[in-house]
Design brief:
Chains A, B: InterPro entries: DNA_Rcmb_RecR (IPR000093), Rcmb_RecR (IPR023627), Rcmb_RecR_Znf (IPR015967), TOPRIM_dom (IPR006171), TOPRIM_RecR (IPR034137). Two copies of one chain form a homodimer. Chain A contains seven helices and six strands; from the N terminus they run αααβββαβαβαβα. By secondary structure, chain A is α/β, with parallel strands linked by helices. The longest helix of chain A is centred in the N-terminal third of the chain and has 17 residues, at 41-57.
Chain lengths: 202, 202
């Protein structure tokens, strides 16, 4: 929705900037701008400050590539975690989901993306050289590939699997199957097919 | 989703600030923060700057209460518009929708909200005194109430209608009826009832 009325420049610039957020179209951007300016000016100031401080103070952990203020992030420097297992995830959000399962006490490596040749994202863009250096620390015995079960996530897992196995590292992948609490009637056929193929003896 | 992993302070602050945007929950806020920091740092800088410049440079038009950089906005100072009709809307977004219908050449007044007693928004919060001063400029002959057709918008229209009519101003309301292009089968019964009640002879 292009504004048919003349719009002041700072408002136009704010709407344009909000549109760059993922999942925000022009209507939402407009609504956000009006809301901030009319009903939450302290929120707007806070957001402006938070953005500049995050840009200034955050960097990538030298070990796991996640966001941190320090050289090494709190998770990587936690001595209670098992340094022999490394779980590779696409994003910090995925890392949080795995952590909240309470089923993992090893370390992480965050790719900050996935292979997407069509978008020009290859092994160089994802800095696989840094990942290989991380894996070669002499402590990592097993790498768990926890990229998403999408076409791109699977491609990334496949590529990394070949790369790491050629260096003699044990590589595993998260199990595919029927989600916990599901009724089979409502699970998609592809998932059922995987669950059949990867069935376990009890 | 509370992050189960320790999170650096600037990242936490950024996610909290993004959550204040309307329609943004913690998951979207997290996704936005990761996106800005990892894939669009220029976008983050731009948004931070746009926010502070909008806060610094925008104010309310002395005539229509919309956002402007000047004392009087471009729409209110446009000599081609008819100063005898004033259309009252809730938000600048509503104003844009009316303008894009190309069916209106009068002026506007933007309430920047609607009466919502449960949220503590009454005539004082919406500065109805300013609106009355605006209407009393000696040029306005008719006021069109274009608040939303929601409970709160209707209440606001009803209240304003009594207030303005008691001052001898002609007040009208947008017509209710079947939307253009609709099939009756898919229009809700309330709308049909209104359309019947307000039927026009042809």
């Amino acid at each position: 929705m292009e504004a048919p009325l003349p719009e002041p420049e700072p408002l136009k610039a704010l709407i344009e900037s909000l549109r760059r957020l993922p999942g925000v179209g022009v209507r939402s951007a407009r609504r956000m701008a009006y809301h901030l300016l009319q009903h939450d000016q302290p929120g707007a100031e806070q957001l402006s400050r938070a953005l500049s401080s995050a840009l200034r103070d955050l960097r990538h952990c030298a070990r796991c590539n996640g966001f941190t203020e320090e050289e090494i992030c709190a998770t990587c420097s936690n001595p209670k975690r098992d340094p022999s297992i490394l779980c590779i995830v696409e994003t910090p959000a995925d890392q949080n989901m795995i952590e909240s399962s309470h089923g993992y006490r090893g370390l992480y490596y965050v790719l900050m993306g996935r292979l997407a040749p069509l978008e020009g994202i290859g092994p160089d863009e994802l800095r696989f050289d840094r990942l290989l250096k991380r894996v070669d620390d002499g402590l990592v015995k097993e790498v768990i590939l926890a990229t998403n079960f999408t076409a791109e996530g699977e491609t990334t897992a496949h590529y990394l699997s070949e790369l790491l196995q050629s260096r003699g590292i044990a590589v595993s992948r998260l199990a595919r199957g029927v989600p916990a609490g599901s009724e089979l009637e409502y699970v998609d056929a592809g998932t059922i097919a995987w669950a059949l193929m990867e069935r376990r003896s009890t």
